[in-house]
């Protein structure tokens, strides 16, 4: 008899693996004693024909008389105290001349087993109790081996369960950063930065763009936004924040900017600096597109060249799927000429009214618009892990002109 008991907050799950060794004659059925309150849900086994449970006994009928060995698994549930002293429900075989096996007790949820009061049980390692326990071990599990004796001999186990309330953990980090960079021969690099941010702590994300960079657009969770500016000149993007005690949500912050550097010669080296954010970054991926007239070779460093496995986080995968769906969508048919003319007159009037309202006022910062990032030319993918906060990742590249078109 090997039994696994999982003490839940609402109910206790019981699973007992029974193996009967029949030494004399044939057995048409087996009678097990079950603790009061245990509801048997299932009895499974190759030789089981039927079963019936009463308040304190379970009768298992075999398909045909068994000589030798019969095995089956009993599954059930009962209600036990959530914490404090708990009497473990033990399934027994009262007619057995010699009862061996063991029992493992685990606490489901936030809790642990403190005091243990075994009777006719010896402490054991959970892995020694067999397949029913294998793979289910946990730090809170307590295991005991039966002292060999008859099935009618007294045997009991009482444990003291302590439960605790998990404290809310403040989380603010970038689970994944993905960069798409389009490097031109004239030294200009268009970069789209996407950050999968998990947050229930911070109100803003501070981003420091590389030198000689100009922000084109920014978005939060797919909606264009106008970032603020800190006293140090960093971009400030307002973050979505989860509630305390709940799992922090993951959303995407996106930036598109243009960076200027030296124009490419026939052969040489260049460096691509990436933005620094004030949160730690777990994973980073860079998809670098370049001119087909050049061959590039990244230098060894924090980044390594590998095949692009696609975004790791679900939030960035959804963002990529939206891009693909938008690119493949069939444009709607053009409206009739009369409707188009009326729409143009209406749009013109809206612009005139907007100009009148905004006359004499100026706005600073990037205008919140959404643009599609051009992914053209050959590309190389590079990956890195664990970037510290406010650290600007960078990669150095050697290039040479090959004469392609």
Compact overview of the structure:
Helix content is 9%, strand content 49%. It has 405 residues and is mostly beta strands. The strands form 5 sheets. Strands 1, 2, 3, 4, 5, 7, 9 and 10 form an 8-stranded mixed β-sheet that branches.
Backbone CA Rg? 34 Å
* Low-confidence sequence ranges: none
CATH class categorisation of the largest domain: Mainly Beta
Q: Per DSSP, what share of the residues sits in E-state strands of 2 or more residues? A: over 45%
Large-scale geometry: elongated
The helix-and-strand class reads mainly beta
Total domain units:
2
Terminus-to-terminus distance: 75 Å
How much helix is in the residues? under 10%
């Amino acid at each position: 008899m090997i039994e696994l008991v999982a003490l839940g907050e609402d109910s206790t799950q019981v699973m007992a693996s029974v193996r009967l060794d029949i030494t004399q004659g044939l057995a048409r059925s087996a009678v097990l004693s079950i603790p009061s309150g245990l509801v048997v849900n299932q009895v499974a086994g190759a030789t089981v024909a039927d079963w019936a449970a009463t308040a304190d006994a379970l009768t298992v009928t075999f398909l045909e008389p068994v000589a030798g060995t019969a095995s089956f698994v009993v599954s059930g549930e009962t209600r036990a105290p959530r914490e404090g002293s708990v009497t473990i429900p033990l399934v027994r075989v009262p007619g057995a001349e010699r009862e061996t096996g063991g029992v493992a007790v685990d606490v489901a949820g936030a809790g642990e087993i403190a005091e243990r009061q075994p009777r006719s049980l010896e402490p054991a390692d959970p892995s020694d109790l067999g397949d029913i326990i294998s793979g289910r071990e946990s730090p809170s599990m307590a295991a005991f081996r039966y002292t060999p004796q008859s099935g009618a001999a007294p045997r009991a186990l009482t444990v003291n369960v302590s439960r605790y309330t998990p404290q809310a953990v403040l989380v603010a980090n970038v689970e994944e950063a993905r960069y798409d960079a389009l490097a031109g021969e004239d030294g200009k690099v268009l970069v789209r930065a996407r950050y999968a941010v998990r947050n229930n702590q911070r109100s803003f994300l501070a981003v420091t763009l590389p030198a000689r960079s100009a922000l084109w657009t920014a978005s939060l969770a797919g909606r264009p936004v106008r970032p603020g500016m800190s006293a140090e000149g960093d971009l400030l993007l307002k973050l979505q924040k989860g509630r305390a005690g709940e799992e922090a949500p993951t959303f995407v912050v996106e930036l598109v900017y243009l960076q200027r550097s030296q124009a490419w010669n026939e052969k040489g080296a260049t460096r691509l600096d990436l933005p620094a954010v004030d949160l730690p970054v777990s994973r980073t991926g860079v998809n670098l597109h370049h001119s087909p007239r050049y061959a590039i070779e990244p230098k060894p460093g924090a980044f390594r060249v590998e095949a692009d496995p696609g975004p790791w986080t679900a939030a960035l995968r959804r963002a990529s799927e939206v891009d693909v769906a938008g690119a493949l969508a069939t444009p709607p048919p053009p409206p009739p000429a009369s409707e188009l003319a009326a729409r143009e007159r209406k749009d013109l009037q809206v612009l005139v009214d907007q100009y009148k309202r905004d006359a004499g006022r100026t706005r600073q910062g990037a205008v919140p618009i959404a643009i599609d990032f051009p992914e053209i030319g050959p590309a190389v993918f590079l990956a890195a892990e664990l970037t510290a906060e406010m650290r600007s990742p960078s990669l150095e590249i050697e290039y040479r002109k090959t004469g392609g078109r």
